[in-house]
Amino acid sequence: MPYKHLPSILIICLLLVVSGCKNSAHDGAARQTLPTAEVRVITVTDQTVQRQNEVAGSVESVQRATIAARIAGAIEEIPVTLGLAVKKGALLARINAGELGARLSQAETQLAQTQRNFEREKRLLEKDASTRETVKSLEDAWRVAEAGLREARAMRGYTQITAPFTGIITQKMANAGELATPGMPLLVLENTEQLQVVAAAPEGLALKIGKGDKLAITIPAAGFSQSGTVSEISPAADSSSRTALVKIRIKGDNALRPGQYARVALPGATGVNTFLVPKTALLRFGQMERLFVTKNGTAQLRLVRSGEHRDGQVEILAGLNAGEQVVVQGGERLVDGQPVRIVQ
Questions:
Q1: For the domain with range 53-61+192-267, which CATH number is right: 3.10.50.40, 2.40.50.140, 1.10.10.10, 2.40.30.170?
Q2: Host H or E run for residue 273
Q3: Vertex 160, ends 157 and 161: CA angle to 5°?
Q4: Per-residue pLDDT averaged across 265-292, rounded?
Q5: pLDDT-derived band of residue 56, with 50, 70 and 90 as boundaries?
Q6: What pLDDT score does 306 carry?
Q7: CATH no. of 34-49+271-342
Q8: Could you state, in order of their start, the residue ranges of all structural domains in the chain?
Q9: Cα–Cα distance measured from residue 84 to residue 190, given in angstroms and rounded to the nearest whole number
Q10: How far apart (Å, rounded) are the C-alpha atoms in residues 27 and 4?
Q11: Span 11-32, average pLDDT
Q12: pTM for the full predicted model
């Protein structure tokens, strides 16, 4: 009885062995039938690069002015809108201040009166009918009245606010009908033809930056990636943040706007040895980064960890050894173990 089912068990085992052999033969045949791929390679070597550190910054206009009221009064009109381009001298706001007109009339009348008195007394002095002290006193009163008239005219001029330079209205904080007070901001005018990136550099890195240095600037929203020139750098660090203000001039671009987020690459440690490969060699698969190397005429898959990206090159921090041949072209469709032929 114990051997009753033995033939059935032997038959099942035999079927499993045959099936496994067929699968192994199928896999081997599939591997052998992979076509030979043509690839271009480079041999990686240690390279000494300068480590960079990125800090956040923002785009600003080099020429920017907050337009404020100089006198108190009701805002009669603000004939500008956000985004409007204005020329130098264009009217930006008019403030109604009737008392200034009355003061101007009063100053004009007072000047005319003191001038008449002064001239009359001068004629009397010529006839020895007056004294020099009286004439001098009236002359001083005339000059005071003349200064008062200039002041009244200047105050009257403050009722009209004009653009100090050609630019674009980027902010509008007041509207017609509101009451303006001295120092109250009304508008912000910016010249967007000249732009700069302003960033706060850590005090240690700020010591390595000098006026005229070139720094890499990236502005993601505008698709902007160019070098800028350091135009200003603060000689003192902020005691609370331990950073120094750096201003970098950049060339204008239609996509650039004041206030946009920017990244600034600052010089860091020098003499760092690393591997650099072209961006085309690095392949992404989900969250993994990989590339292919060639060895004995076959492609070998390598999982790697990348570092900084600069000038079309990618820094490889792990997963690669010096002297290996990395596939830089033709690796998109490669399979691990696939035969390859290196072409120039």
A1: 2.40.30.170
A2: strand 272-278
A3: 110
A4: 80
A5: very high
A6: 82
A7: 2.40.420.20
A8: 34-49+271-342, 53-61+192-267, 98-158
A9: 11
A10: 37
A11: 47
A12: 0.56
